[in-house]
Amino acid sequence: MKKLVLLLAVLFAANLVSAQEEEKKEDEVPPNGWSKTGTIQLLFNQSSFNNEWIGGGTSSIAGNLTLNYDFNYRMDDFTWDNKILANYGLTKLKGDDYARKTSDRLEFNSIAGKQLPNSNWYYSYFLNFRTQFTKGYVYSEDAETGETIRTETTHFLSPGYLQTGPGMMWKKNENLYVNIAPATARLIFVDSDFTSTPGYVDGQYFGVDQGKSTRFEFGASVSAFAKYEILENVVMEHSLGLYSNYLDKPGNIDIDYLMNLQLGINKYISANLLFQAIYDDNAVAAFQIREVFGLGLNYNF
């Protein structure tokens, strides 16, 4: 299954690049200096059922707050692109003791590039950092009382991921690029409290050994980003990150794919579909899937 998804992702990226190359006219070179743009969006989801609704269902309310901020710099053949992605979402089911997270992500991406003459290729150096804002829990039920029990499993900087390294970047423009970094250093940060529990097995918590708070990896990284308009006021974004650790099971490729489809209604309102798929066998040997759809309020700056 993992190999199939990876193959589909690679084929999709290849087809997208080919289509953009054939159909899109050559963009004008952006002016030198800084360019900055950002969007704050709040998505709402709500459902309600009265006591007479015989089809079954549970009333709920949910919200998801997203920040997408780009600040990029260009000086002739040198570019430096930076992006901050942040989202946090909660849902509350009627009768539940706790509100539960639907999303929690803080990510910073930075790529500097020196363009080769008369080419879309750049010498590049990238940095990626990601973590979460608040505590994460697993939920269970007390066998005697039936009450919900929640156990903390993650929090801010546990885990945290830092990747950095040199490479080569193919860049059509700020909305379409692929970066290949064959010598990438990666650090995984965790709270040592999680790795110091009795009976802890090395690598059980995000690959970190017993009593330790960091794990070092060295491998290859590929990242890609594409943003384009499907129809008028319908914009789709794709970001894909792949990583292979040379030092341990290089065939187990970590995958992080995020799709954001925005259907513009007017300047301030849009409907959005977010889809994310993650594979990281240091966390769990299965795909993690997240999907959020709702009506959004937008603020652009």
TrEMBL record:
Q: Which Pfam families match?
A: DUF3078
InterPro entries listed in its UniProt record: DUF3078
Q: Where is the signal peptide?
A: 1-19
| Record key words, sorted | Signal
Keyword field contains Signal: yes
Descriptive protein name: DUF3078 domain-containing protein
